[in-house]
Write a structure and sequence with these properties.
Aspartate Aminotransferase, domain 1; 15 strands; 15% strand; 41% helix; binds pyridoxal-5'-phosphate; Aspartate Aminotransferase, domain 2
Length: 392
C-alpha cells in the first residue's frame, strides 16, 4: 500500500474518538470503534497542500476558488459519471448543517419528513430539532441485506402528507449500496407524491468489489445531493462540504439561510484539502476500499463461529452486527462491552426503532485492531451467554 498509513494511537490529539475514552472515564485500553472517523492518516499530498498554506503564516478569510468547484465537478464526472455544473455547488460547513438547511428552507413547521431507519441519527434528530414531524419507514432486514419497503413508504407518504425524504446512499449503518432497480421505483414514488428528495451520499467512495455508487441525481436532476470529502479523506475537522442543487430557486433559498446565520466564509483548510483530494488522490481511494473490504472480511471470518450475525455489507466502513442472541437491551450490551471488554461500539438503538438488537462497528482501522475487537466481543459473549445459560 503506497498511500494508506494506519494510526491507532491517537490519544491526546483532541480526537473525539480517542480522547472521549478518558473524559467518559472508560477503561484506558478501550478500543474506540464507534464514531465514523478513520484511524488512517490523511493522504500526504493533502497534508503537503495544508503545509504550504501554514507556511504563508496568515490564516485570513478564504476564497472559494474556481479550482475548488471544478475539482468537485470533475471528480463527480470521473468517479461517479455524474455531470454537474460548477454553479450548482453550494459549499456548507458540514453535511448535517446541509440537512438542517434543506429542512428549514424547503418545508414548513410541523410538516412531515420521511426517514428510512435505522439511519445515521441526525437524520431524525435534525427533523425534530427544527420543529418538523419525523415519519419513519423501517428498512427490512433480509438474509440478502436490508431492503426498502415501498408499500410502507407509500402508505406513510400518503398518511402523513410527507413533503421531504432524507435518503442515505450508501446507507449508514446498514451498509447497502442501492441498485438502479431499487432507486428508480423509489424516485418514481417520490415524484408521484411531489416529495423533495435530499440524498446524503457522503459515503459514496466506499464501495466493495462488484458494487457501484449511483448518485440519485443521475436519475432525477431535482434530487438535492449532499457530499463531502471528509469521510473518504478523513477531513471532518476541516469543515467543508457541498450540496449539489440544480434548481436556481432552491439554491437561492439555501444560500440565503446560511447568509441569515452570517456564514459567508469557508474554512480555508477544507477548501484546499477538498481541491487536492478530488484532483489528485484517486489512487488513495482505491487502496482505501481494498483495506476496508479486507477488514470486513476479517471481521466476518473472526465472528463466523460466534452467535453474532454480520449483516451483508456492500459499502461504507461500518459493520452492522446483529447481537439479538444476547437477549439484553443493546444500550446495556454497549455499556457492558466497554466496562468489561474494553470495546466501544455504537449502540444500534440510537439509529432508530429497529436498530435495537444491533451494534455498529467502525472497521476503518488496522487489521490488528479489527481482529482484537472481534476477539474481545467473542470472549465477552462467551462469558455472558454461558452465565445466562447457567442461571436458567
Ligand atoms: C450519512 C452521514 N451523513 C453525514 C455525516 C456527518 O457529516 P458531517 O460531519 O459533514 O456533518 C455522517 C458521519 O458519520 C454520516 O454517516
Amino acid at each position: 500500500m503506497k498511500h494508506i498509513r494506519f494510526k491507532t494511537n491517537r490519544f491526546n490529539t483532541q480526537s473525539r474518538k480517542y480522547d472521549s475514552i478518558k473524559s467518559q472515564q472508560y477503561p484506558s485500553d478501550t478500543l474506540p470503534m464507534w464514531v465514523a472517523d478513520m484511524d488512517i492518516e490523511v493522504d500526504e499530498r493533502i497534508l503537503q497542500g495544508l503545509h504550504y498554506y501554514l507556511d504563508e503564516k496568515i490564516l485570513g478569510y478564504a476564497l472559494e476558488t474556481q479550482e475548488y468547484t471544478q475539482s468537485i465537478q470533475h471528480y463527480l464526472k470521473r468517479r461517479h459519471d455524474l455531470e454537474v455544473e460548477c454553479s450548482w455547488v453550494v459549499t456548507t460547513p458540514n453535511v448535517v448543517s446541509s440537512i438542517n438547511a434543506c429542512i428549514l428552507a424547503l418545508t414548513q413547521p410541523k410538516e412531515s419528513v420521511l426517514v428510512l431507519e435505522p439511519v445515521y441519527m441526525p437524520f431524525f434528530k435534525s427533523v425534530e430539532a427544527v420543529g418538523r414531524q419525523v415519519v419513519f419507514s423501517s428498512l427490512v432486514d433480509t438474509p440478502a441485506g436490508y431492503m426498502m419497503d415501498l408499500t410502507d413508504i407509500e402508505a406513510k407518504v400518503k398518511a402523513h402528507d410527507v413533503k421531504m425524504v432524507l435518503f442515505c446512499s450508501p446507507h449508514n449503518p446498514v451498509g447497502r449500496v442501492w441498485r438502479e432497480d431499487e432507486v428508480r421505483p423509489f424516485l418514481e414514488l417520490m415524484n408521484r407524491y411531489h416529495v423533495i428528495v435530499v440524498s446524503d451520499e457522503i459515503h459514496m467512495d466506499f464501495m466493495f468489489k462488484g458494487h457501484h455508487h449511483l448518485p440519485l441525481m443521475k436519475f432525477d436532476p431535482h434530487v438535492i445531493m449532499l457530499m463531502s470529502a471528509s469521510k473518504t479523506f478523513n477531513l471532518a475537522s476541516t469543515h467543508v462540504s457541498q450540496m449539489i442543487v440544480q434548481d436556481r430557486v432552491i439554491r437561492k433559498k439555501i444560500k440565503s439561510l446560511y447568509s441569515q446565520l452570517g456564514l459567508f466564509h469557508h474554512h480555508e483548510f477544507g477548501i484546499r484539502a477538498t481541491t487536492i483530494a478530488y484532483s489528485h488522490c484517486d489512487d488513495y481511494i482505491g487502496e482505501l476500499c481494498e483495506v476496508i473490504e479486507s477488514n470486513v472480511n476479517l471481521v466476518k471470518g473472526a465472528l463466523k463461529d460466534s452467535p453474532v450475525q454480520v449483516t451483508p455489507i456492500e459499502g461504507t466502513y461500518l459493520v452492522w452486527l446483529n447481537v439479538k442472541c444476547v437477549g439484553l437491551p443493546t444500550a446495556i450490551i454497549q455499556k457492558r462491552l466497554i466496562q468489561e471488554a474494553s470495546l466501544w461500539l455504537h449502540d444500534g438503538s440510537i439509529f432508530g426503532p429497529t436498530g435495537e438488537g444491533y451494534l455498529r462497528m467502525n472497521v476503518a482501522t488496522s487489521p490488528q485492531v479489527c481482529l482484537e475487537a472481534c476477539h474481545r466481543l467473542k470472549s465477552w459473549l462467551k462469558g455472558e451467554m454461558h452465565e445466562s445459560k447457567s442461571s436458567v
